[in-house]
Each structure stands twice: as C-alpha cells, then as structure tokens.
Amino acid sequence: MKFLQLLTLAFFIALCGPFVEGLGVNWGTIALRPLPPATTVKLLQDNGIKKVKLFDANDTVLNALAGSGIEVMIAVFNNDLPEVGDYDKAKEWVKNNVEKYNVKDKDGVKITCVAVGNEPFLRFYKDQFTSTTFPALKNIQKALGEAGLGDTVKVTIPLNADVYESPYDNPVPSAGYFRADVAPLMTDIVKFLNETSNPFTVNIYPFLSYYTSPNFPLDFAFFDAKANPVVDHDIKYTNVFDANFDTLVSALKKVDCGGLDIIIGEVGWPTDGNVNANVQIAQRFYDGLLAKLTKKEGTPLRPNSTFEVYMFGLYDEDQKSVLPGDFERHWGIFTVDGQPKFPMDLAGTGEPKMPVSATGVEYFPAKWCVVKPDAKDVSKIPDAMKYACDRADCTPLANGSSCGALDETGKASYVFNLYYQNQNQSDKSCDFDGLATVTTKNASQGTCNFTIMFDKVDTADLPHGGDGGSSDSSSKGGSDHKSSGSSPSAVLAFAVAALFGVFGILVLGMDV
After folding, report:
1. Which one, of 196, 207, 203, 99, lies nearest residue 154 by Cα?
2. Which among 23, 137, 294, 359 has most CB atoms closer than 10 A?
3. 3-state secondary structure of 333
4. What predicted TM-score, i.e. pTM, was given to this entire model?
5. Do residues 463 and 31 make contact, with C-beta atoms less than 8 angstroms apart?
6. Domains of the chain, earliest start first
7. What is the pLDDT of residues 131-168, one digit of tens each?
8. Whole-angstrom Cα distance, residue 219 to residue 510?
C-alpha cells in the first residue's frame, strides 16, 4: 500500500510539476558563451520551472520559448522609455514584441507581463527616467488593451526596494512610506496599477542588505529564525525579507492600495566573489525561501499568501560588470554551462535534490593550462596574469572566494587555464612567453575548480534547436538586471544606490 501511495505521489508530481506555486527565474545572458536558448528552455522544463523573467524582448530567446507553455515576462529598456512615451511608438513596440508571438495560441509565446523599465528610480539616475517611466507604463498598458491583450498581458515596473523606507527614528515595517523625492509619482503609479489590476514588482536582496551594511546581522538575511527579532508592535520579524516586504505593504496602505498584488522580481544569493557568497550559504538561503513559498506562509502583513517570485538568477554571467562587487558574476543557481550548484526543493516536496543539468553539452578534452614547473623568468607572471584576466573572469581569486586561498603559482595557473579554455584550448594560448604548459592532470584544488570549457551544445532534437549555436542576445542589446538595458552607468547606479540603503532605512538603522 505504501508503495502504491508513493507511486501515485510520484505520478502526480510528474504530471503537475512543482508545488512551489508562483516560482520563476530570471534568465540573463551576459556571458562569454551563453547556452543556446533551446537548451535553456529544456532545462527550465526538466526542472519544472514554469515562469521566466527576461531583461529584454530578444527574438531568438522568445522563439525558443514558443509552444513551451512557460510564462514569460519581457522588458522595455530604460533608454526606450522616452520613445514609448509616444503612443504610436508604444503601439509599435507592442506589435513587434508581443503581438507577433501569438501569445494566446498554445504554440505561441506565453507572454504574461511587460516590465516597463528596470529600477528606473534609483537615486543615482538623478531623475533621468522620472518623467518618462509613468507615461511609458500607461502607453504600453493602453496599447496592450487596444490589441485585445489587456486581460492576458499585464504591465509592471520592476523597482528597487529603495523606493520605500522607514525613518531612522522608527525603523520598523509599519512605518514604511515611499521615498520623499518620488512619493507623489509612486502614489500615482501605485493607484494606476491598482485601478488597472496590474502588479507592483520589487527586487529584494538580503545578501546586499548584509554586504552594504557592516552592522547588519548575517542571520537576519535567512529564514531559519536564528536572528534576534525586530519588534514592531506585536509582530516579531526574524528575517529581512519579511521586514522589507511588509515595509512595502505599509507604504501601499498609506496610499489606500494595501491589497495591490506584489511580485518579487529578483531574489537570490551569490555563490562566489565574497566571503559570504558560497554554495553552502546560498543553499541555506534557498532552502529557507523555497520552504517558505511551499508552505504559503506569506508575511506578517500578508499571512498565508502565495507570491510570484523570480529567483535571481538562472545562470552565472561571466561578462557582467563587477562594479557592485565580484559576486555580480555568480548569482546563478546553475553554472554558465548549465550544471546545478546545490540541491534545491524546486518541487516543494520537502526533499531538496540536485536540479537537472543542461543536456547536450559537449566539452573540450580533459586538458588544463598551468604554470610550467621549470618556468624561468617568473617575474613575468603578474603581467601575464593581468593580460589573461582582462580577457577572462578572475573574480573567484578574490579574498574569501572559491580560489582565494591558492598560492601565487596556483592563482597564476587558474588564470592561465581560464584564458586557455576561453581560447578553445588553442595550443598557442597556453604559452605566456614560456611560462605555461598543458597538462592532462586535473589542476583543481580544494574549492577551486579549474574548468574545462564546453565545445558545443547538441540541440538537434530540441524544438527551435537550430544548429546548436549560442544565444546572441548579449550582442543584440540583451541586458542584465543591473544595466537595465541602458548604459554602463546603470551598474554604477546600482552600487551607489546600495550604499545609500537599497533596501530601505529599515535594514540600515536597526540594532538586533
């Protein structure tokens, strides 16, 4: 009988997919070799992930998603906000980026939401997008309605959590209100979203709350109730996610929109590039987050609620700017080549397991480039390392990172190998003026993995698989979440905003 029960449960899980209702993932493509879109779509399906958030409306990616049944949020770049502020241009944008994909057809792309901009009200922008965001939002919503898609495709603005805050003298969620310089505009936007039944989207990063504030207690970033609580009247907050979310709820209540739907546009934990960014800590974070979502706990001000939550992110992105920190390239729950990093309970069964890897990935031979044991002029090594690091991702070498404990020879070997792999194991790429040599002995040490680059990906049997080539979205204006589809200064904007309290004064001023 027990066997039959387990068999029935297994069949139900296979049939219905994950129990973590509302769970999705951000799919960024700022990588030297992003996996082909068809491979990524299969990866999402194999892991039961039914929602994906993009940072553009890339044609190659969207065509790969056609017929998959995966719900898709696409985006308007920040720099395009003034253009779609013109209604005719907004209609054209909707025609070219939504209508053409037959969103109501089962064989089309299931676009369910358009993100109008990305974190446009960061302080660093100095009002660059203040006057253009709301008109763009209204125009896209109107154009969707005119196209007969108003009930099918929602609109939203992914906002950084710095648009709301609690005062320094009362840093509790119930005191939450919109930031003074954007309060009138935010009030208008929120009321519009409420009146048109569209959601509010916010990005919440507990890791960055800790990273940007030396007094922030690390345990408060997690969901396992190990931190001393923040007491708000009769409510005790034991994690910053709940406190941050309820600060927003309080701000919404103050403008009579307390019931507005809220989407968590980005939430996650990096696995490298910082002493508190590693696989073990990231697993602790996701274990708590996924358990919370599975149980539908909600937050104190939204109890027993289901959230639409997009994990950040799907893959590591080894070409992103590291201006905010070396961790910026390591947010993925999968490596660049589609390998899972740690067990996750994506199915909501209470039993985390390793996610399914990307299929069809073929690697170069098991060869590594390392410092030659009898290298003569070792004084050239620093210059050689700089040359290689200018062309490869050396962030794992930072102090406290996965390769930070290597000795100088080990670090040089790591860098030489990265360059060698990125150059498709070309013999001439492992020379460095006679300092390096190729070996067939795995050079990995401890937590430091000396990777072998993937050669190609077989997508012949996949829908929209094409010839197995990589996604070209990064070369066609594809944007990561920090650049907001605008300019390199947007990455700096993120970093500066973080230092001014990305997640509201609540998380900077508390004493727990």
Report:
1. 196
2. 137
3. coil
4. 0.89
5. no
6. 21-360+473-509 (3.20.20.80), 365-452 (1.20.58.1040)
7. 999 999 999 999 999 999 999 999 999 999 999 999 99
8. 14
